[in-house]
Amino acid sequence: MSTREPVTVIGLGVMGAKMAGIFIDAGHPTTVWNRTASKADRLMERGATLAASPTEALRAARLAVVSLVDYRATHDVIGAADPAALRDLVLVNLSSHTPEQLRGAARWAAGHGARFVAGGIMVPPPAIGGPAAYTFYGGDRDALDAHRETLARLSRIDWMGTDPGLAMIYYQAMLHVFTASLTSYMHSVALLRAAGQRVERLFPYASELFAGMSQDSPVGYLREVTAEIEAGSYPGEENDLAMQVVGAEHVAETMREAGVATALSAAVHHLFAKAEAEGHAAESVSSVFETLRATALQ
User: Fold this and answer.
1) Which of 44, 97, 130, 262 has a 20 to 30 Å separation from 241 between CA atoms?
2) Rounded Cα–Cα distance for residues 206 and 227 (Å)
3) Burial state string for 196-216 with b = 16 or more CB within 10 A and e = fewer than 16
């Protein structure tokens, strides 16, 4: 008989199935539920128990990990369960949505006697359970600590605070860094492809740039921008925003000339030009932060 605590996993998409598999392999009695029951077949072969309903799944353990498309789906599933199954349950929701949705879910869970922990796991499914995996958590700290050993099988635990919305703010912030950076790379690759160049020729240069941005060096732009924003000072003597506005315009014109989609490069140019018009021309590019936080782009 296993001495590991039982776990329920609600939602067996690629991420939920991966997490359930990790719990099974670690010896946790694992109950699963998914709207399409056949998605549990392989997990059942490995030892999982398929619940017939969300209510049955929630009653099978005092720790329930939810991995659904968003919090609307979570409410549809968990909200349809017998309210009695929620009493004293630790509900760890690793689904994505907005911070306000998470805060509302926490209030709803508390109103039904459950203890709510929100999380945003910051790696793709193949990396869950590996050394690079980490998750932003927020909400009920005592509930998290009570199940820390079990949840740590999925990833490193990074506690952001008792406000469950903070976990999602950090998650969405990092997701934006990832998607915007990757999209800018793909956009640049499209420019090279339009010029008949091989994609591989750009990779080493982009790789060197990304690696160097976080270093303490003359090209450590990430450190530089972070320090300037923190200080609220944007010295532009050596590299002012006015020069970057011209550069951004040239990038957008080059994309247009090559027949490549211009939405991204045009948006960057528009943002830089807006910051310049607001009086930041002689400051560094970090001053664009003031425009980003002050107004929504029209």
Assistant:
1) 262
2) 23
3) eeeeeebeeeeeeeeeebeee
